Amino acid sequence: MDKRAFQFSPVQRYLDRIHEExxxxxxxAVADYIPELTRADPSWLGIAMVTVDGHVYxxxxxxQSFTIQSISKAITYGLALEDRGLDQVLSKVGVEPSGEAFxxxxxxxxxxxxxxPMINAGAIATTGLxxxxxxxxxMQRILETFGRYTGRPMEIDETVYRSESDTGHRNRAIxxxxxxxxxxxxxxxxxxxxxxxxxxxxxxxxxxxMMGACLANNGVNPVTGVVALQSRYVEKVLSxxxxxxxxxxxxxxxxxxxxxxxxxxxxxxxxxxxxQFGLGVFSPRLDAKGNSVRGIEACKRLSxxxxxxxxxxxxxxSATVMRQVYDCSKRTSRRxxxxxxxxxxxxxxxxxxxxxxxxxxxxxxAESVGVExxxxxxxxxxLVIDLKRVIGTDRASILVLSELASRIATEGKHLxxxxxxxxxxxxxxxxxxxxxxxxxxxxxxxxxxxxxxxxVEWCENQLIAEAETTGSENAIGASVQDLGxxxxxxxxxxxELEELRASGEERxxxxxxxxxxxxxxxxxxxxxxxxxxxxxIDSGSGHHLRLSTxxxxxxxxxVAFMNxxxxxxxVSAATETQCLELRFESIREALRIKMLMNMASHFASKIExxxxxxxxxG
Length: 618
Ligand code: GLU
Hints:
The protein has 618 residues and is α+β, with helices and mostly antiparallel strands. It contains 21 helices and 21 strands. A hairpin with a 5-residue loop joins strand 17 (533-538) and strand 18.
């Protein structure tokens, strides 16, 4: 994307502004209990934001590196969950906020289990759970994991590591205590060393934003597409960040800012707005609780100015996802129908209802859609739920929709979900349920039709077939040999019809064969006697887009009769098709005029119908 799009984006300008305003805040002090940290320049301030689309915004010292410190705890916790699973990790480290300082020795009386993985005791226990793999030392695995989040190779600041290792007696003591309680099953010295190294990984504010964006994006790095954390653990990591991520300011933080976050004594804060973005702020001056003063302020302002609090209530109802609902009494499928068939649909089409959904289906919106559909069930026998514009379904909405499908099936009605190739989990669930597609010879299942148009066509055919058995004379698929039934020939005498027939050539096209291609020279038209053809175009992206399906008694290729240019669409035989091909040049002047008049009146009524349709769409 054009770089200027970001440079001039309102988000970039907003970040530039808060960066400038925060430069005036000079309270707080650089951490000094790890001597090497005092070398940080107190005036550094970097802010970065990465959206789940992978857009990166950054300002100030966003590329200045510093040690990650406690922020590493969230990432290592995710890795431990992947290595050991939820139960084993929970048996070693709890998830209760301690309300105490980061280096407190909050161990559960009796078991010695640290309160949570965000305080040092819990983090050291967590690091102790990281497994080495054949040929890979635990530290290398930790670095590789961090690299998946940031999208670049990571390294350790050896000087900071040594400085902490030389002075980190309290952390050593904690590791020994954990070992004494059986929480660590590896040598405490080895584990605490790993922990010191993990805290000394060098990152930038941009890296923190990218890491946050991976968590916001359900574990997937939005820029590289690499899985940083298995999605099932993302909410666990975000939970402990929400309740325990900001030391003994965690309650105040979630109350005021409302985003899961983790800070470190190096001056970094990583915040996450799930589904939206990751934020990284770096400024080394800390408040009394060990959080970056300007970092907190930046997040507070952002949250307040854009109403980003996680608990800010966003409504999710059918109104947000229901694009439009229509029945087929006025708007039919693209299959061209005879006048008699159109009459059946005008009378009965209200029994087919099409629901076009859009956006993201969540519990609230799916539930609301379900209620709306069920409330109209008494008047509809065929339901088509078009998911073409749905970008995602969560577990709740999948369950609600599949429940709806089985409910409708038990009522003896038909429900089809269309255009859901990309909704992988939705399809998988439905295929696993009894509501999935049925075997040959049975009625089509809910996922049978690729698009709404074909599903609606099937439903229309049912209504038309039903009307036939109850007395209408126009059978679908029956052969129509009489040219007099063709609208182009209306008003012709018997002799004229015979003359036309004699000047044409009878042709049979096997199923699947191409009758003509878009771009071919157009010299004839085809009256269909039997079978079925499909008129289609390539939508540009290689997608086969049906314009219409025509059957016996209908004509195609006739448009070129007026302008005699080239074919504008492709026509293929959908089933074996018998036609009369009539070359334009073989039609006598008097008949030509009759046919052109018929065509003009046909197009006039088509324009009328299309106007009505546009009115409905509008
Ligand atoms: N390595 C630091 C320690 O354990 C991390 C502290 C922090 O960032 O909260 O003391």
